[in-house]
């Protein structure tokens, strides 16, 4: 679907469609996967919650006050898995692009990756005390490029192999004294090491596999939901009986490996939270096959411009904290201001209004224009039709 107004034939000749109609079509037309936008919206607000709320370390089904713990670590992994889905969709969906079309798409992914990495460094310079994910996101985009021609089954196998093997290596990598030096700290910031690409590429490839399998096919949605739920059950159940805690994870190799604690990059977190992300994506796509798609339109609007929403949150945080607290670095002081609800509400309102009145998110639009300026369309490029999918 084009950015500008579409023309439709009438008895008196072609005419320009109303502006609001084109904005509505952009958000709700066949060019977008509503369930993926919903999942992105949930991931963005989940990351807001992880940043802005006080979250207890222990999750307890009997204590609703602890249920917000579900966003810790899971939102960022959901974000990474959705990156893979997005890469899969822009490189052909169930039928990978061929020839120069794939070459162009790959080069644009690399340019976008650099822009994400650079934006991440700029956001980190605001001093807001969070681990900015965009540096890791950019690196993951580049790492995913060589895999864009693979079929779904191969992608799932590779993702599974990385998920099972790399956590063993990651424990050793994280224990390296280099990370505790000044140079190591700068390197960790540049690499987004809180979200280590060495393991997290598994989540991206799993999402890419879902896109290649045909995310709009009912069978794929159901199987993804079932597989994701099974993986989550296994990972979290094994963690529950392991008896590991943060103290033991710091002391020896096996507790550090055999854990599903958020941001541990332990084997059970990779299995459990990776499965959780797949299940959430599939559930969102299935829900958006029903009337719920209209109820969650504001969340889908947030998910249609996740980069803008994420960036705006950190910039507004830095601005407000500097005025109210005198510094942007006081995490406890800012959380004590209880900013989550106003941030979430204004983000939903702002994104919905922008999507319906203007269209594409401002950063999404700018990144797209920049990548198209850098990587031109090849002379022989023609849009390759996607396979028909079961709706």
UniProtKB/TrEMBL annotation:
It comes from the Bacteria. It holds the Pfam family HGSNAT_cat. Keywords: Membrane, Transmembrane, Transmembrane helix. This is Putative membrane protein. The chain crosses the membrane at residues 33-55, 75-93, 129-147, 154-173, 193-215, 222-241, 276-297, 309-328, 340-359. Residues 32-224 form the Heparan-alpha-glucosaminide N-acetyltransferase catalytic domain. The keyword tRNA processing does not apply. The keyword Transmembrane helix applies.
């Amino acid at each position: 679907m084009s950015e500008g107004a579409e023309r439709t034939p009438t008895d008196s000749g072609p005419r320009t469609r109303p502006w609001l109609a084109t904005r509505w079509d952009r958000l709700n037309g066949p060019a977008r996967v509503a369930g993926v936008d919903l999942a992105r919206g949930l991931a963005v607000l989940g990351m807001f919650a992880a940043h802005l709320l006080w979250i207890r370390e222990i999750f307890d089904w009997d204590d609703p006050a602890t249920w917000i713990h579900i966003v810790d670590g899971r939102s960022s992994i959901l974000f990474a898995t959705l990156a893979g889905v997005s890469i899969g969709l822009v490189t052909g969906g169930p039928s990978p692009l061929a020839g120069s079309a794939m070459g162009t798409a790959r080069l644009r992914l690399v340019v976008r990756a650099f822009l994400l990495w650079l934006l991440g460094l700029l956001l980190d310079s605001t001093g807001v005390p969070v681990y900015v994910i965009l540096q890791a996101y950019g690196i993951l985009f580049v790492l995913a490029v060589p895999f864009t021609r693979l079929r779904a089954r191969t992608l799932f196998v590779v993702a599974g192999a990385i998920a099972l093997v790399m956590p063993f290596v990651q424990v050793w990598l994280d224990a390296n004294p280099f990370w505790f030096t000044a140079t190591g700290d700068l390197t960790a910031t540049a690499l987004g090491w809180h979200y280590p690409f060495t393991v997290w590429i598994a989540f991206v490839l799993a999402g890419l596999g879902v896109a290649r399998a045909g995310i709009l096919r009912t069978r794929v949605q159901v199987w993804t939901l079932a597989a994701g739920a099974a993986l989550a059950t296994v990972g979290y159940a094994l963690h529950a009986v392991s008896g590991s805690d943060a103290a033991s994870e710091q002391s020896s190799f096996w507790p550090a490996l055999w854990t599903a604690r958020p941001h541990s990059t332990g084997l059970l977190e990779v299995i459990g939270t990776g499965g959780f992300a797949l299940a959430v994506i599939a559930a969102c796509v299935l829900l958006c096959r029903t009337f719920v798609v209209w109820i969650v339109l504001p969340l889908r609007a947030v998910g249609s411009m996740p980069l803008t929403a994420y960036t705006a949150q950190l910039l507004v945080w830095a601005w407000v904290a500097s005025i109210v607290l005198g510094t942007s670095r006081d995490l406890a002081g800012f959380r004590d201001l209880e900013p989550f609800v106003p941030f979430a509400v204004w983000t939903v309102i702002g994104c919905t209004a922008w999507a319906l009145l203007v269209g594409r998110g401002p950063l999404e639009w700018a990144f797209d224009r920049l990548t198209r300026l850098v990587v031109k369309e090849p002379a022989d490029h023609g849009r390759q039709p996607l396979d028909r999918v079961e709706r």
